[in-house]
Amino acid sequence: MKTKNLLSARKWVWVIIPFCLFTFLPLSAQTVTRTQHREAVTQDAVTTGTMTVRKPDYICISTDGGREQLIMEGTKFTMTMGGKKHVTDSRKNAQFATFHTVMKAVINNQPIPTGEDLTVSTKNGQMTITITPQKKKRQMFTSFVLVIDAKTSAIRQLRMNGRKGDYTDYKIQ
User: Fold this and answer.
1) Residues 6+ apart with CB under 8 A from 13
2) How far is CA 148 from CA 16, 39, 46, 120, 168, in A?
3) Model pTM?
4) Diameter of the chain by CA atoms?
5) Do the Cβ atoms of 30 and 162 come closer than 8 Å?
């Protein structure tokens, strides 16, 4: 009786392990080039890294050996830049609420939602989505620009525009 249960348990292990691997681990990571532009500095900082996407709403862009990260995990956004960690939640931050809604739609290959702070244009097989928050006070970014492949919904570029001409641009290959 114990041998039969042990064999049955072993069969389940061979089913569960691959399921967990394909569900929780990324199948592949895309290469990312990050350009950080600061008006006060003459030369842009350029680093490379990876972007990992998992449905329904997880994205991790990691550059500079993991020292610089941008993570969207559900409604929680974590950004590590220059050794400083910034955390916000899209349920409390209107700027990131629209960004989360758009990113989730892109990841899940769904139609892009409409909104007052959102413009969408299509040109040369690419869709450009610009999110410009109405409320400008104390915002970390003045706008987000997301470029995706119109056919595959693959993310090609994410640009986060800061105040005074600063920006961080992620180009995904």
Assistant:
1) none
2) 34, 27, 21, 11, 17
3) 0.79
4) 74
5) no
Q: Which two tokens stand for residue 145?
A: 């620009």
Residue tagged 């972007």 (tokens)? 51
Instruction: Tell me how far apart the alpha carbons of residues 171 and 108 are, in angstroms, rounded to a whole number.
Output: 20
The Cα angle at residue 24 between residues 19 and 25, in degrees rounded to 5: 100
Of 138, 141, 134, nearest to 158 by C-alpha is 141
Q: Which among 37, 34, 83, 28 is positioned nearest to 63, based on CA atoms?
A: 34
Query: Cα–chain-centroid distance for residue 145?
Result: 12
**53 vs 26: CA distance, rounded Å:** 7
| Owner of token pair 């114990």 | 2
Judging by DSSP bridges, how do beta strands 58-63 and 118-123 pair with one another? unpaired
State pLDDT tens for residues 19-68.
444 444 444 689 999 999 998 888 999 999 999 999 999 999 999 999 99
Residue 37, C-beta contacts closer than 8 angstroms, at least 6 positions apart:
44, 165, 166, 167, 168, 169
Range 77-82, long-range pairs (CB < 8 A, 24+ positions): 81/36, 81/168
Distances (CA, A) of 106 to 56, 103, 128: 10, 5, 12
